Amino acid sequence: MTDFDFLTDRTDCRRAEWTPTQDVRPAPDGVVVEIARFALTANNLTYAKLGDSLGYWRYFPAPPGWGRVPVWGVARVVQSSVRGVAEGERVYGFLPISTRRALTPSLTGSSGFVDAAPHRARLFPTYNEYRLIDRDPHFDPAEEDAFLVLRPLFSLGFFLARRLEDDAYFGVERIIVSSASSKAAAAFVHEVGGRLETIGLTSERNLAAVAKAGLFDQAASYSAIGRDPGLKGRRALFVDFSGDPAITERLRQAMGAALVRTVVVGATRGDGGSFRTDGDTKGTTEAFFAPAQILRLRERWGADRLRERLAESSARFMKAAKPWLKFQVHAGREGVAKAYDEVARGAAAPDVAAILTATDRE
């Protein structure tokens, strides 16, 4: 039996291919899961672009020069030598784009575990956590597609909003958000909840879709920077999901001192080079990294309360997204490759989310 891995060129995330691999076997204290369904969004390409700087390539090691792009998905346990994790159970968490994967569970309670594989010991713990979702009372199988697509992106928006609340949004009157067509940007704006005026920046191609969704108080194209009077004047915070330094510089020149702060969150358009983890880059610019905020809130609220607040807010966002978001299923390795190519080229429709499955083996 042959399994397959979808490998991405670490120097060019647009180049990727399926590669056969040896049959996946569990460690003596491990499990093998068959990856059933997962979501693919621009956020996963951000993982690839930041794979070296933030260690995303290290979660699922690959041959030299190649990487396994992490995704959030559901897998079924097909082999288990771990008491407390039964064959047939479903697992939700951080997974590679592969047909199967070996994990090394260390149980943390009745409904989840962490992957205790030695190579993951020094990595950010948030991404090592897995939920046994058939035991989870908060998981609704009828909403699985929305959960796969929106829960990780909502989490990013949720923790970003909490981080900015800690600084009272730097005293600004409005927030300008790049890559406004992204689901992560939508989640963040949903969490801002009318506290401040929001302006969504996007490409000309996606401008109509962003305006139609009605998530932002105003939508503008990148080409309007410097021309649109709505982008000038009042003090603003720039939340940058694009990671494109050219956009940031044009906005800085157009707004001058009115641009109080820039928070870089992702790299949907850029190559990830503007995302820094060594502190303030230009005095008024910082990078946001969700796992660090998660740890802070766990200490402040406790793990149970944090989980409850995240689940409650996430459910509200998923309900609000239903009118404008459609799901498109891609099955088989060819379907996965096609969907990946669309996302990597930035050609995916903003109101469509890809749900993928590639369990076929030879």
Essential attributes:
362 residues; alpha/beta; Quinone Oxidoreductase, Chain A, domain 1; Rossmann fold; 9-stranded mixed β-sheet; 6-stranded parallel β-sheet; 8 helices
What would your notes on this structure say?
The radius of gyration is 20 Å and the shape is globular. The chain has helices at residues 42-49, 144-166, 183-192, 204-213, 245-255, 290-301, 303-321, 332-344, and strands at 3-9, 16-21, 31-40, 66-67, 70-80, 90-96, 100-103, 105-109, 112-115, 129-132, 174-177, 197-202, 218-221, 236-240, 259-264, 285-287, 326-331, 352-357. The protein starts with a strand and ends in a 5-residue tail after the last strand. Mean pLDDT is 90; it is low at 277-282. The protein has 2 domains: 3-139 and 325-357, Medium-chain alcohol dehydrogenases, catalytic domain (Quinone Oxidoreductase, Chain A, domain 1, Alpha-Beta Complex), CATH 3.90.180.10; 167-287, NAD(P)-binding Rossmann-like Domain (Rossmann fold). The chain contains 8 helices and 18 strands. The strands form 3 sheets. Strands 3, 5, 6, 7, 8, 9, 10, 17 and 18 form a 9-stranded mixed sheet that branches. The protein has 362 residues and is α/β, with parallel strands linked by helices. The longest helix is centred in the middle third of the chain and has 23 residues, at 144-166.
